[in-house]
Amino acid sequence: MQSIRSVGDRIGRVCNTAPMLAVTILYPRADDSTFDMDYYTSKHMPMLAEKLGDACQGWGAATIAAGKYAAMGWAVVTSEDAFNATMGAHGAAIMGDVPNYTNVAPELLVGEIAGGSQ
Protein backbone atom coordinates (compact mmCIF):
# COMPACT_ATOMS: atom_id res chain seq x y z
CA MET A 1 0.00 0.00 0.00
CA GLN A 2 1.38 3.41 -1.01
CA SER A 3 1.35 6.36 1.31
CA ILE A 4 -0.55 9.48 0.33
CA ARG A 5 2.74 11.38 0.28
CA SER A 6 4.30 9.13 -2.35
CA VAL A 7 1.22 9.42 -4.58
CA GLY A 8 1.21 13.20 -4.12
CA ASP A 9 4.91 13.37 -4.97
CA ARG A 10 4.19 11.63 -8.30
CA ILE A 11 1.24 13.79 -9.38
CA GLY A 12 2.72 17.20 -8.61
CA ARG A 13 2.47 19.97 -6.11
CA VAL A 14 -1.03 20.86 -4.95
CA CYS A 15 -1.82 24.22 -3.41
CA ASN A 16 -4.14 23.95 -0.43
CA THR A 17 -5.16 27.41 0.74
CA ALA A 18 -8.05 29.01 2.57
CA PRO A 19 -10.96 29.91 0.29
CA MET A 20 -10.26 33.04 -1.73
CA LEU A 21 -12.32 35.13 -4.11
CA ALA A 22 -11.43 35.72 -7.75
CA VAL A 23 -12.63 39.09 -9.03
CA THR A 24 -12.38 39.35 -12.82
CA ILE A 25 -13.13 42.58 -14.67
CA LEU A 26 -13.79 42.31 -18.41
CA TYR A 27 -13.77 45.23 -20.84
CA PRO A 28 -15.86 44.63 -23.98
CA ARG A 29 -14.46 45.42 -27.39
CA ALA A 30 -16.46 47.77 -29.65
CA ASP A 31 -15.67 49.70 -32.82
CA ASP A 32 -15.27 52.92 -30.85
CA SER A 33 -13.90 51.51 -27.57
CA THR A 34 -10.70 52.81 -26.03
CA PHE A 35 -8.56 51.38 -23.24
CA ASP A 36 -5.42 52.87 -21.68
CA MET A 37 -3.53 49.89 -20.25
CA ASP A 38 -0.72 52.09 -18.92
CA TYR A 39 -3.17 54.08 -16.79
CA TYR A 40 -4.99 50.91 -15.75
CA THR A 41 -1.84 49.18 -14.50
CA SER A 42 -0.10 52.24 -13.04
CA LYS A 43 -3.07 54.02 -11.43
CA HIS A 44 -6.40 52.17 -11.35
CA MET A 45 -5.44 48.66 -10.27
CA PRO A 46 -2.96 49.91 -7.64
CA MET A 47 -5.78 52.11 -6.28
CA LEU A 48 -8.09 49.08 -6.09
CA ALA A 49 -5.38 47.08 -4.31
CA GLU A 50 -4.76 49.93 -1.87
CA LYS A 51 -8.48 50.23 -1.07
CA LEU A 52 -8.70 46.44 -0.53
CA GLY A 53 -5.69 46.61 1.81
CA ASP A 54 -4.58 43.28 3.29
CA ALA A 55 -7.60 41.59 1.66
CA CYS A 56 -5.88 41.93 -1.74
CA GLN A 57 -3.64 38.92 -2.28
CA GLY A 58 -2.60 39.95 -5.79
CA TRP A 59 -3.82 41.49 -9.02
CA GLY A 60 -3.05 41.50 -12.72
CA ALA A 61 -4.12 42.80 -16.12
CA ALA A 62 -3.98 41.59 -19.71
CA THR A 63 -4.63 42.96 -23.17
CA ILE A 64 -6.75 40.61 -25.27
CA ALA A 65 -5.75 40.62 -28.94
CA ALA A 66 -9.02 39.42 -30.50
CA GLY A 67 -12.53 38.47 -29.57
CA LYS A 68 -15.35 39.89 -27.48
CA TYR A 69 -13.11 41.61 -24.91
CA ALA A 70 -10.27 44.10 -25.35
CA ALA A 71 -8.79 43.84 -21.86
CA MET A 72 -9.21 42.22 -18.48
CA GLY A 73 -8.10 42.72 -14.94
CA TRP A 74 -8.26 40.45 -11.92
CA ALA A 75 -7.71 40.51 -8.19
CA VAL A 76 -7.47 37.73 -5.65
CA VAL A 77 -9.29 38.76 -2.48
CA THR A 78 -9.47 37.03 0.89
CA SER A 79 -13.28 36.97 1.03
CA GLU A 80 -16.49 38.19 -0.50
CA ASP A 81 -17.19 40.12 2.70
CA ALA A 82 -13.90 42.02 2.32
CA PHE A 83 -14.63 42.78 -1.34
CA ASN A 84 -18.18 43.95 -0.59
CA ALA A 85 -16.99 46.11 2.32
CA THR A 86 -14.38 47.76 0.08
CA MET A 87 -16.89 48.42 -2.68
CA GLY A 88 -19.36 49.79 -0.14
CA ALA A 89 -16.80 52.21 1.26
CA HIS A 90 -14.84 53.05 -1.90
CA GLY A 91 -16.97 51.87 -4.84
CA ALA A 92 -17.83 55.40 -5.97
CA ALA A 93 -14.15 56.36 -6.22
CA ILE A 94 -13.18 53.08 -7.90
CA MET A 95 -15.99 53.24 -10.47
CA GLY A 96 -15.54 57.00 -10.87
CA ASP A 97 -12.01 56.35 -12.13
CA VAL A 98 -13.19 54.13 -15.02
CA PRO A 99 -13.62 57.01 -17.54
CA ASN A 100 -9.93 57.84 -17.04
CA TYR A 101 -8.88 54.68 -18.89
CA THR A 102 -11.83 53.43 -20.96
CA ASN A 103 -15.09 54.48 -22.56
CA VAL A 104 -16.85 51.12 -22.04
CA ALA A 105 -18.69 49.74 -19.02
CA PRO A 106 -16.75 46.92 -17.32
CA GLU A 107 -18.32 43.50 -16.73
CA LEU A 108 -17.60 41.95 -13.33
CA LEU A 109 -17.30 38.22 -12.56
CA VAL A 110 -16.84 37.15 -8.95
CA GLY A 111 -16.32 33.58 -7.79
CA GLU A 112 -14.73 31.50 -5.05
CA ILE A 113 -11.45 29.95 -6.16
CA ALA A 114 -11.93 26.16 -6.19
CA GLY A 115 -8.29 25.13 -6.60
CA GLY A 116 -4.97 25.86 -8.23
CA SER A 117 -1.24 25.47 -7.99
CA GLN A 118 1.75 27.54 -7.00
What does this structure look like?
The longest helix has 17 residues, at 80-96. The chain is 35% helix and 26% strand. It is globular and about 40 Å long. With 118 residues, the protein is an alpha+beta fold. Residues 1-10 have low confidence and may be disordered. The relative contact order is 0.29. A 4-stranded antiparallel beta sheet has the order 2-3-1-4. It has helices spanning 4-11, 37-52, 80-96; strands at 21-28, 56-63, 69-77, 107-112. The protein has one domain (18-112): Alpha-Beta Plaits.
Key structural traits:
118 residues; Alpha-Beta Plaits; 26% strand; four-stranded antiparallel β-sheet; 3 helices; disordered N terminus; alpha+beta
Give me the secondary-structure topology.
Layout: H1 4-11, E1 21-28, H2 37-52, E2 56-63, E3 69-77, H3 80-96, E4 107-112
Antiparallel strand pairs: 1-3, 1-4, 2-3
Short description:
With 118 residues, the chain is an alpha+beta fold. The chain has three helices and four strands, in the order αβαββαβ.
Q: Strand tally, please?
A: 4
Low-confidence stretches: 1-10
Strand content: 25-35%
Rg over CA atoms, rounded to whole Å, is 18 Å
Number of helices: 3
Strand order of the largest sheet: 2-3-1-4
N→C terminal distance: 28 Å
